[in-house]
Amino acid sequence: MKLYFAPMEGITGYVFRNAHHHCFGGVDRYYTPFIATHKNKGLTSREKNDVLPKHNEGMPVVPQLLSNNGEDFIKTARMMAEFGYREVNLNLGCPSKTVVTKQKGAGFLAEKDRLDAFLDQIYSGLSGKGPEISIKTRIGMETEEEWEGLLALFHQYPVKELIIHPRVQREYYNGTPHRQIWGEALKKSRNPVCYNGDLFTVSQIRDFTEEYPDTQAIMLGRGMLMDPALAEKWKSGEETGTWKPEGQYDYARIRDFHEEVYEGYRSILSGDRDVLFKMKELWWYLIQAFPQGEKTLKKIRKAERLSDYERAVEEVFMRTI
Predict the structure, then answer these.
(1) Cα–Cα distance between 260 and 85 in angstroms, integer?
(2) pLDDT on residue 130
(3) Which residues, including other chains, have CB under 8 Å from residue 245's CB and lie 6 or more apart?
(4) Sheet with 2-5, edge to edge strand ranges
(5) CB contact set of 72 (below 8 Å; sequence gap of 6+)
(6) ∠ CA 81-14-222 to the nearest 5 degrees?
(7) Cβ neighbour number for residue 286 with a 10 Å cutoff
(8) What does the pLDDT look like over 57-111, one tens digit per residue?
(9) Residue 176 CB neighbours (<10 A)
(10) Which end of the chain is more exposed for a tag (fewer CB within 10 A), N or C?
């Protein structure tokens, strides 16, 4: 089974991806945080750096695009092709209000006729002339009943892969995913499908695949931030038939991973504040792998200088010895 690393805005940029790819295995594909397409602007320096081939060497990476304008999407997708990417991913899943109010991300799902015209334009415009297009989507804006019509719409196009997060926009990440929708998609979809949503541990992945044995691909997000070795643990268990007990962490490798991310940000960001902002975002999730997580997280989040941060992190790792 294939495992993908979900795009996480502000966290899984190229510095993070390189460190993860170097320190851990198991990931078949990394997706970049979304690039918002624009009519009269090219890529920002941050976006360009994130997709430059020299910053993604040896990694299977797919750029994700956020757009509701066909011409802008095609222009940006062709830029990605010039960088050597054979696939781009359309974001129809972001539930953020700042995105949805612009009828982008999951907000585009409410504009079904307009979405249809957009898909027709980008698939015909890039057919044989650009990268293939996969789609990451939610199942609707308000209710799960919207999904049947959306799936029928997607069937009209050569979607390379349909990555399904079975929640509607208004649910954000609350409650539980509508997994019966996933079961229906496995049976009905004419395009390859990938599951995404609330799989945080090896045992949860195992239970899920036992319930849906035809699943061929899973995208992991928050679970990979809580345990960077999650994909590797699953792949190892698939090969041997025996999975490690929950709660076992290789803290030495997590420390190496942390150091690579930390030094990577220090090399490209100026000033303590920007580096701390990036690292604190990561620790919001990573602390779940450590004993007395909430207590030590407070010290990390209170750090205002890199020297304070380094002492707090040292304390975190000392607790694992």
Answers:
(1) 25
(2) 86
(3) none
(4) 35-36, 64-66, 87-92, 132-138, 162-165, 193-196, 217-220, 2-5, 29-31, 61-62
(5) 37, 38, 39
(6) 110
(7) 22
(8) 999 999 999 999 999 999 999 999 999 999 999 999 999 999 999 999 999 999 9
(9) 10
(10) C
